[in-house]
Specification:
The chain is an all-alpha fold. The chain has a domain of 149 residues. Helices cover 75% and strands 0% of the residues. The radius of gyration is 31 Å and the shape is elongated. The protein starts with a helix and ends with a helix. The N terminus is likely disordered.
């Protein structure tokens, strides 16, 4: 049976019950013993050292218990997978009991240490009832867990004991990416050193995707270092890496520190055009991230960011209109009217927001327009609204266009209405031509 990556990741999220409580109980016993020994020593009580060392016995039992846990996990994982596969063959879905079991399994799989995960892999490899492809993907899911929680152990295991996984280049690259990304969150310098030592040895694995994983991981805690890694790792697609660093900033505080680090990075780009392009793309990404938090939080952060008027206008371009919440579009338009200086850049931002809003909820956009005071912002909004609805409501679009002041902008909107006028039958074609003649459209 051929199994997909999606299915393998689903298997990773569903599964078995391991003896986690027993392991925790043994850890507690060991900690309690250590505490009692210390208290006895302080009281002048000397324990008999000639008998068996309880710490040794507890450690041995803990180790044996952990091995048993891992083997039991493997057995139940394989059993659960077989059961799940049979349901798929019959086109049935897992019942509630199986789904609850799957959630419990995910927690316990994540709780295994690297040694236990290695045992889990060995048990899967030894299972005779699994075909090679299924076995590979099951092990991929386990090693993905190791990569997230124990990245150094995962890298060592991948390069020394799991070479078969690299028969599928995507799998190997993905696992290296996950491991280095996780490692870079805690110790980016050590992860960088690993790439320097092993990059030439594994050129197909230490590629830009892998390096980007490290940069993204480092950005979580140290955006300044993450920007430095772009140059140190020799990443080719620098714009993509910058975008990943900015995407890692989820809170207002993180965005502020990332913006400060971004300014330092941009200052070192000597080519003016390249610097301006990088600045525009990065500022747009960080503003989009702020917009996703809602108008109140997003506008507050942008106001506090210390952007120049040019930077501010630039930051609200790109996909800003698509990333904001539709219900906030009117608030953003009013904020832009008060915040951005008049000009082509602000007009483009306004038209982009209204166009997107109209596509999502033209009635709400129309109500906002009707209630908005006359002025440049309303005029630009009307033009965008007219363009958006002219394809399906040309008569309504014409009414709005005629509210614009006589001149170039009104003429352009009327021209757009004529060009977009639906011509599905003879009557609609005649209506379009009558509209053209009425307004003197050439």
């Amino acid at each position: 049976m051929r199994i997909s990556i999606t299915l393998s990741l689903l298997i990773f999220a569903i599964g078995v019950v391991a003896a986690w409580q027993d392991r925790q109980r043994l850890i507690q016993i060991s900690e309690t013993h250590t505490k009692l020994v210390a208290e006895a020593s302080q009281s002048g009580i000397t324990l008999d050292s000639s008998g068996p060392d309880l710490n040794v016995r507890v450690t041995k039992r803990l180790r044996e218990n952990k091995q048993a846990d891992a083997k039991q996990t493997a057995a139940e994982l394989i059993s659960y997978f077989k059961e799940w596969s049979e349901l798929q063959k019959k086109k049935l879905q897992p019942d509630e009991a199986m789904q609850r079991k799957s959630m419990d399994f995910q927690d316990r799989l994540l709780a295994l240490d690297s040694a236990q995960l290695k045992i889990l892999i060995a048990e899967i490899l030894a299972e005779k009832d699994l075909d090679d492809k299924t076995r590979q993907y099951l092990n991929y899911s386990v090693i993905e867990t190791m990569a997230s929680n124990h990245p150094q152990a995962a890298l060592a295991f991948l390069l020394s004991e799991a070479s078969d996984l690299f028969k599928d280049g995507w799998l190997g690259s993905r696992l290296i990416y996950s491991s280095l990304g996780s490692w870079a969150k805690d110790d980016p310098i050590a992860a960088l050193e690993w790439v320097r030592k092993n990059g030439e040895k594994f050129p197909d694995l230490a590629n830009d995707n892998t390096k980007e994983g490290m940069i993204s991981g480092a950005a979580t805690n140290d955006p300044k270092l993450a920007f430095q890694l772009i140059g140190q790792l020799g990443v080719k697609d620098t714009d993509r890496s910058v975008g990943q660093i900015i995407d890692s900033a989820k809170t207002a505080e993180q965005r502020t520190s990332t913006l400060a680090a971004l300014r330092g990075y941009l200052a070192k780009i000597e080519n003016k055009d390249a610097r301006e392009n990088a600045s525009r793309n990065a500022l747009q990404s960080i503003a989009e991230s702020a917009a996703e938090t809602g108008f109140e939080a997003g506008s507050k952060w942008i106001e506090s960011a210390g952007l120049t008027p040019s930077e501010l206008a630039s930051s609200l371009g790109g996909s800003f209109a698509h990333r904001m919440q539709s219900k906030d579009a009117g608030k953003w338009l009013e904020w832009i009217d008060k915040t951005l200086p008049p000009g082509e850049e602000s007009e483009n931002v306004i038209r982009s927001i209204v166009s997107n809003w109209t596509r999502e909820d033209y009635q709400a956009a129309g109500k906002w327009l009707a209630a908005t005071p006359d002025g440049p912002t309303k005029n630009q909004s009307i033009r965008a609204y007219v363009d958006a609805i002219s394809e399906y409501e040309p008569e309504s679009a014409a009414e709005w266009a005629m509210t614009l002041p006589a001149g170039k902008e009104r003429t352009q909107s009327l021209q757009t209405i004529y060009e977009n006028w639906p011509r599905k039958d003879e009557a609609s074609r005649a209506a379009a031509e009558a509209f053209k003649a009425r307004h003197g459209i050439e």
